[in-house]
Amino acid sequence: MTDIEKKIASDLLSIKAVFFRPEEPFTWASGIKSPVYCDNRLTLTAVNVRCDVENAIAETVKREYPEAEVLMGTSTAGIAHAAISAHILGLPMGYVRSGNKDHGRQNRIEGKLEKGQKVVVIEDLISTGGSVIEVVDALREEGAVVLGVVSIFTYGMQKGLDRLKEADVKNVSLTNFDCIAEIAAQENYIKKEDIEKLIKFRNNPSDESWIGA
Q: Over pLDDT 90: what percentage of the chain?
């Protein structure tokens, strides 16, 4: 674990943006039982955490994608993070809607984007990778050169890793599921023995044998 991965993990846990409850699982819309709840929008109202996150995004863009010319946020969770980190970097930004508007110019991509511009997508979290790949596809269709993605948090689910690789999309996350589970145990949010349950869930979300184990 890097220092930034540990710092962001601790930040997200402190404001319950990522909240573990292995003894009383949450139920996703799909019906899957999950020991983790994620809402990175909470970073926006926690000033110190927000500063850590946006500065880390900016530093990651500079380190991993030094040729970046534009930041594009995912709608809606990535928009604010793209705007703030773009301000830090002195770069233009825009965002990509989940679909075209049904009025006006019927834009899907908001903000000026020139063909051939080098873009980094800003996302709040990645699970199976489907939504961020749709954003990348939309940008590529408009002629952008998508250098990759910076996300705040990733589950590291195999399905997501495989889909990103197949779509030729590089993702760099500020922190990840394994790191947050480890920090959660260190900071007494969960028990040390809960880590095995969490990893078992991450490796196969449809397998509920970890519940009550």
A: 85
Angstrom distance (rounded) from CA 132 to CA 98: 10
* pLDDT for residue 133: 96
pLDDT tens string 145-158: 999 999 999 999 99
Provide the pairing of β-strand 70-74 with 118-126.
parallel
Q: Alpha-carbon distance 105 to 137, whole Å?
A: 20
Count the Cβ atoms, other than its own, within 10 Å of residue 199.
14
Selection from 64, 75, 84 nearest residue 174 by Cα = 64
Q: Using an 8 Å Cβ cutoff, are 72 and 93 in contact? A: yes
CB burial string 11-36: b at 16+ within 10 A, e below: bbbebebbbbebeebeeeeeeeebbb
The pTM of this model reads: 0.93
